[in-house]
Structures are given as structure tokens and as C-alpha cells.
Amino acid sequence: MAHYRQAGQIPPKRHTQFRRPDGGLYYEELMGEEGFSSDSSLLYHAGVPSAIVDSQVWDLPDLATTPNHPLTPRHLKLHDLFTAGAGNNVVEHRRLLLGNGDVRISYVVAADESPYYRNAIGDECVYLERGSAVVETVFGVLNAVEGDYVIIPRATTHRWLPGADGVQAYCIEANSHIAPPKRYLSRYGQFLEHSPYCERDLSTPADIFVVEGTDVEVLVKHRGNGPSGIVGSRMTYATHPFDVVGWDGCLYPYTFNVSDFEPITGRIHQPPPVHQVFEGNNFVICNFVPRKVDYHPLSVPVPYYHSNVDSDEVMFYCGGDYEARKGSGIGLGSISLHPGGYAHGPQPAAIEAALGAESFEELAVMVDTFRPLELGEGGLAVDDGVYAWTWSGRRL
């Protein structure tokens, strides 16, 4: 983010002596992106941020993937993956739905607090379908509620503490950074007037969050020779990573609530890019929110059929009533996967049924990827097996 933030105590000039009340030095850490050439923040630690006393293997959940071959549109029923959240946490109990070399999409229902965790591969965007959580981070605390996107930069140590009712979380893990689309921003990074949201809609840690402790275990997901090139380590730090007395910069976690997205509409049907909210390398994230629909007298409010020549489309239906999928079996908690090379669109009966509609009360989160997605174990477990034939009503 290009928007400068400051919390706690910092020295008047960077990379200069900053002393504790007892006369010792605080330890300055630069957390930055793209090799000192992009956004960064400076954090001031009471302890040495590199001091570890142990490192062991963290056996990750199953991250193996299966190609979507032969090419098949699919319906994944996420609410069948978990019976309850008790005994699960947001970090260790994610089940992989879909993935490729750029992004992985998983789902979790959790009620327990997570261990301390750091993703050293890429940024995470966690959408809260249901529930609330406190997210403690090295930058401070975020209070996440239903409908929030929680954006956590790569290498941010944090942990999840679900509220009394637990959480249902849709987790998007990138191999890159996740940020607002460049076309929404000025050349200096300010949101432009045509953007469907702006700086006022982002919530950041309000203050520092200091915890004392020694020999603190942090689970680290990092590059290696595991499935999709991912492995895990359990690193034990000599002092608590939440010992930051102050920080400043343009790199930090934040939340954005889907209800603050202002939809862009028109006389005729608008294409999916108007619904975009974030982007990463080789993928985009969009949201379809309640809105007025096309107002040309002969408009067709549901989408036209379109061929995904360059991308796979993943739609997560998380609220309201999605008009274009009526008659397909799609419902709340469903994912539709429309792979590249397959022309997809509304169910035939939905086209006539939507004529004359003035608004849609739907809520969906879409991920479009520019490399083919493969199915994870979670996706394979809840594939309904019949969605592909719902347009024709039959199978050979």
C-alpha cells in the first residue's frame, strides 16, 4: 500500500540509534518487498528478530493437486467439508480446493485459536464468510468481521483467535503480493475517483500490540521441495515476535469489508472487471455484491455466454441468491469452476426469468487465474459430479 502509517514509538530518523529506557538499543527490522524496490515498513523490536533456538519440520496438510482433465466445469460444495469448527484452527486445518503455481484456494471452519504463523511464500487474502476473529499481528491487532477480506503481507507473523461462534474462512494464498488493481490508483498510489472503494474503507492496526515471552514457536510456510514447491518449518524464537514497540511505513496488514464495495452498473450488462477488488501475479479477485442491474429497456441482466480463453473462473457463492446459476444446484457455500477453454454462462431458464429485474441480491467472491487450476484433496472430496451436464440436462 502507498498509504503511510505509524504506530508506537519510532526515532525521528530511520536507521539511527533508538534506545530503550535502560539505555540499550532497540533492534530495527526492515520488512520490504521486491528487494528494497517496493513498499516497506521499519519495525523496532525489543529482542533480536533473528534469534532462534530451534527449528523442526512442520508437516503441512495435503497440498497435492490433480489436473482437471478431461476439461470439466465443476461444482464444489464447501459446506460439506466440515461438520463443526471445534478442534480446528484457521492455519493448520485448511483444506485445499484448487491451486496452481501462482495461487492456492482453501477453506476452513474453525473455532480454536491458531498457533503463531508466517507465510514466507506470498501474501494471503482471507475472506470471512461467517463469524468474526481477532487477528494478532506483529504490526498490531485487526478485528475481522463477516464479509471482511483480511490482507496479510508475506512474512507477517500473526495468529487467529475466532469469536464465540467460530469462523468460516475462504483462504487465498498467493505466490506474490496482493494489492488493489493498478487502474484504481494514481501513479503515486492514491485511490482515484473511479475506484469502487478508497482509503477510508480500509482498517489497519490502530496501535502496537506488545507481548512478552521466550521460546515462542512460529509455524512458517516456505519454499521447498514439497507439493507445489511448499514445505513448512516450526521455528522457535528466543523472544516473543510481538515485541515491536513501534513501526512506520507503507507495508502492513489491513481489512476491507465487501459491503463497502460500491458496484459499477450500466444500461447494459457490465463485464467482470468492473467487479474487481484485488490482484496478484497471474490472478485477480472480484466480488459481486447486491446492486441495481441493467436498465436498458431490452437489457438481459444475467451474463452472456463467454469463453474463458485466458483464464479459469472460480466463483464462491456466499450470500443472497445468484440469478445466473438457478437450476444448476448451486447454492450458498458452493464454488463453481469454469475452466479456460470452456464457454460458460447462465442456466438457460435463468435468462428469461431475469428479464425485467431491477436489482440482484447476490454476494459472490470470484478468483480468475491465468494458468490452469488443479483440484486439491478438499475440492475432490466435495465435487458434486453432475454440474457439468446441467446446461444440457443429460449425459451420454
Automatic annotation (TrEMBL):
InterPro entries reported for this sequence = HgmA_C, HgmA_N, Homogentis_dOase, RmlC-like_jellyroll, RmlC_Cupin_sf
Q: Which organism is it from?
A: Kribbella sancticallisti
Spell out the residue ranges making up region: Disordered: 1-21
UniProt entry keywords in alphabetical sequence: Dioxygenase, Iron, Metal-binding, Oxidoreductase
Which parts of the sequence belong to the Homogentisate 1,2-dioxygenase C-terminal domain? 283-358
Membrane-traversing stretches: none
Please give the family membership noted in the entry.
Belongs to the homogentisate dioxygenase family.
Database matches in Pfam families:
HgmA_C, HgmA_N
Cofactor names: Fe cation
Domain of life per record:
Bacteria
What protein is this chain from?
Homogentisate 1,2-dioxygenase
Q: Which residues form the Homogentisate 1,2-dioxygenase N-terminal domain?
A: 110-257
